[in-house]
Structure formats: C-alpha cells, structure tokens
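Tokens in:
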C-alpha cells in the first residue's frame, strides 16, 4: 500500500492561511524529465515580470454616470469604490446616486446589477495607454489585412486549437471550449481586430491590461486600438476572450506589420465543472477564470480550460456530447499537455463513494496512459453554500483514496474541503442570504453554488496557485 506524506506550503501568497498538499510516494522519475525545471523557470519569469491582472491597468477606471448604458464586465468608480457589472448583457444606470457600499451582495441601479469589486483603484491613465473603440466598420487608412487563416503564422493562439468555422472558413474559433487568447506583435500606431462575439474581452499590451474589468464588443465588429499619440514601436498585444468569440484578423496601415509574438509554450490542461468553466454569470471578466489567472501567476503561456458545466468524474454534461471528465481525456492526451489539473467532484454527490473512487481512478489511469510524463495535480471538492458537508467531505475522501490507489509518482492530491488548515470555503450562506457562519456569505453567488468574482480572485485562484507552486518544487 502506498505511503502518503503531507507537506505544508508557505510559498506563493504567504499571507493566506497555511494549507496542505499530499503526494503519493513511489519510484522516482528518471533524470531525463525536464518538465519540473521548465515549470519552475516559468514561475520565476512570471514573478519577475508581474502578471497583468496584478498590475494597475493602463487606463484609469471611469467614474459612474447616471442614465448610461453599462455592459457586463464594465468597472466604474462611485463614491471612491469600484463596482463591476454582473447582469448580461448589461443595462442602463439610474438617475439616482449610483451603486454604494462594500457588501458582498448584488446592488441594483436602474437596470444594471453591480457587485463591489474589492480591487485597488489608485492610478491615473498612463501615457502608454491606447484609445479603444468598438466599431462596425474598419477605420479609414487601415487597408492592410492580416488573416488568421491565410497568415496564420503571424498569430499565436493559446487555450486550444485555432480551427476555421465550417460555414465561415476565414473565421477561427479556439477549440475545444472557446476560452483562449490571440497574440501578435505589431509596430502599427493604430490597428483593428476583427472579431465575432459580444462577451467581455480584455486587451493586454506589453504585459499590462489596457482597462479594468471587461469590455463588450460589437458582434462582427472591430476592436480599434489607437496609439497615434505615442511613438511608433513594436508592441506585444494579446486579446483575452471568454465565451463564443471568434477571430478573422487584424487591419493595419500599409507601412505596418503583424508578426507572431514569441512565447514560451508550456501547455497546462484543466479538468473541471462550472466552478472552473464559469456559472451564474461569473466570472464577469475573461481574465478571472481561475485557470487563466493561475496561469498568469505561474507563467503558463498555454492554459487549456477543458472544464464543462455539469460534469464530474461520473456525472455527464446535459449539453450535446453528454460526457464527463473521462470523455475529455482525449482533449489532453491528444494535444501534448505537459501538466494536468483536476478540480471537480461537486456534481458527483448523488453517486456512491465507491463508484466515484472507481471513476476517478479510471480517469487518472487514462490520462497517464496517454501522457506518461505529465505531472497530475488532483484537487478536492469545492464546497458551495452547503459548506464542507458530509457529502462533500465523503466525495473528497473518495477522490483522495483514488489518488492513493493510483500510486503514481507524478500525481499529487491537494485537499480543499478537508484541508487541515481549514476548508477553503465554509459556512452555509451566500451573497443574498448571509448566515454569518463563514466566508460562503461573500464567496457564493445568488444561486447558492457558483463562486463570485471576489471568491475566484481572493480565494480559489490564490489557493490553487500556491498549492501548485509547492508541487512544482517537487516535480523532477
């Protein structure tokens, strides 16, 4: 029987409470494996550069205005506090005084629903900031078009495989789950990205977010980015997307060029449910899916979010495809994932623990068969407004026991609801029904299940990043 050791970790985000990871010991991996060194190098580089979401955006957060349309993901300042729009696609603010307070619950303002953003607000608009407008036609003078299909080598995609749409072969979608990024370099003082979709997006220029929150584009429109007031120089540009957003290309002036950005390509695949893929409107900003945020923290350039709502080790998604984690194993094994994370099990609470154990074990075995050298990190079960209930704890223990039986030298288990330092989410309340018995009052959204933006940013992502950071130090 495998001997299990527990290792307390303090590294990344040391201000948070100490937690614990568990590794199943076995034979050592040969010295030919370099993924550990690569992941450690990624983390050092990320620490030196600072990740975009951890810096002040280039553009100052605007003040709230009355009788104004705001879209999901927009952030404003009112009475000195930041607020972000929750409802999709948005609404019109009232003629009153606007959102106020710093509580965790939703705030009504005309037909807009806000949440207190709980993020730093200091900083003015940088001289390096571009002017961004969403247009229905490309600006005059931008006659040179770089197509993501005809000139695909001039772009770099992460999060999946760029695939032309069958009915629109000049338009690229990022498969399998349309949660990716498009990056390029350009010396153009002004350029326009042709995209389809109207979910909130973020632009990152030379490692800095252009604005706080997210910006809703024009479907089939152009994201016009204008640096005309700044010197001509080559800039690294990344478009972060979420939801069903696709790309056609970039327009520049005839004197400018578009080339692929240089990336250190570390591919990380994440299995999960709607806690990871998004649910009940959260996250509001494309950057705040925890896999993407953790990827920024740890320097991963190619994070594949394979999560699908409703799924688990056993439970199958109600959407077309009707599959579970096991059904997505091929998305990881067929695409050379270098590190695999599992964060799920909440949807498996209706099944016997023995069945969950068997299904989890089978899933880990299938991943290992297809990826013999990829480290696997298995997290326990996220507790929503039930807190770490008997069912949640039993499910986490069943997954833990599957990792133990797996007895794989490159697989680690990280407790979540049974964390010896305390469960990550605890209590039985949520933002519209606080009970005062734990952080679930602010961590769980109005549906009683999915995490709020504040929970993703302040609890889930830091805990996961810190746990993974400690595991990375042990990977050969």
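Residues out:
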């Amino acid at each position: 029987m495998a001997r299990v050791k527990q290792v307390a970790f303090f590294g990344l985000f040391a201000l948070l409470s100490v937690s614990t990871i568990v590794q199943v010991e076995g034979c050592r991996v040969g010295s030919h494996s370099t993924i550990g060194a690569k992941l450690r190098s990624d983390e050092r580089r990320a620490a030196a550069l600072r990740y975009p979401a951890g810096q002040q955006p280039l553009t100052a957060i605007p003040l709230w205005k009355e009788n104004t349309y705001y879209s999901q993901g927009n952030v404003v300042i009112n009475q000195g506090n930041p607020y972000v729009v929750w409802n999709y696609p948005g609404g019109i603010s009232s003629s009153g005084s606007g959102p106020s307070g710093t509580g965790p619950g939703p705030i009504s303002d005309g037909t807009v629903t806000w949440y207190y953003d709980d993020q730093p607000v200091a900083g003015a608009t940088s001289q390096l900031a571009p002017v961004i407008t969403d247009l229905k036609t490309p600006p005059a003078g931008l006659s040179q078009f770089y197509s993501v299909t005809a000139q695909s080598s001039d772009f770099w995609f992460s999060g999946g495989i760029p695939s032309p749409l069958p009915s629109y072969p000049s338009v690229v979608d990022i498969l399998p789950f349309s949660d990716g990024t498009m990056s390029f370099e350009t010396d153009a003082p002004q350029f326009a990205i042709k995209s389809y979709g109207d979910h909130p997006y973020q632009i990152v220029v030379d490692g800095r977010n252009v604005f706080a929150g997210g910006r809703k584009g024009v479907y089939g429109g152009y994201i016009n980015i204008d640096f005309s007031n700044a010197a001509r120089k080559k800039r690294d540009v990344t478009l972060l997307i979420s939801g069903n957003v696709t790309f056609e290309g970039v327009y520049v002036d005839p004197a400018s060029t578009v080339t692929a950005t240089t990336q250190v390509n570390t591919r990380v695949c994440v299995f999960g449910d709607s806690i990871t893929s998004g649910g009940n409107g959260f996250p509001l900003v494309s950057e705040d899916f925890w896999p993407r945020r953790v990827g920024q923290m740890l320097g991963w350039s190619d994070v594949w979010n394979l999560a699908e709502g409703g799924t688990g080790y056993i439970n199958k998604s109600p959407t077309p495809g009707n599959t579970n984690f096991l059904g997505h194993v091929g998305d990881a094994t067929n695409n050379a994932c270098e590190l695999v994370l599992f964060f799920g099990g909440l949807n498996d609470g209706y099944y016997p623990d023995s069945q969950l154990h068997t299904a989890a074990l089978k899933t880990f075995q299938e991943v290992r068969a297809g990826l013999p050298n990829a480290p696997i990190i298995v997290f326990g079960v996220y507790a929503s407004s039930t807190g770490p209930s008997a069912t949640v704890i039993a499910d986490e223990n069943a997954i833990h026991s599957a990792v133990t039986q797996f007895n794989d030298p490159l697989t680690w288990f990280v407790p979540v609801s049974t964390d010896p330092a305390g469960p990550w989410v605890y209590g039985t309340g949520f933002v519209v029904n606080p009970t005062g018995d734990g952080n679930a009052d602010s961590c769980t959204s109005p549906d009683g299940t999915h995490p709020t933006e504040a929970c993703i940013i302040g609890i889930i992502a830091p805990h996961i990043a810190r746990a993974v950071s400690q595991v990375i130090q042990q990977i050969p």
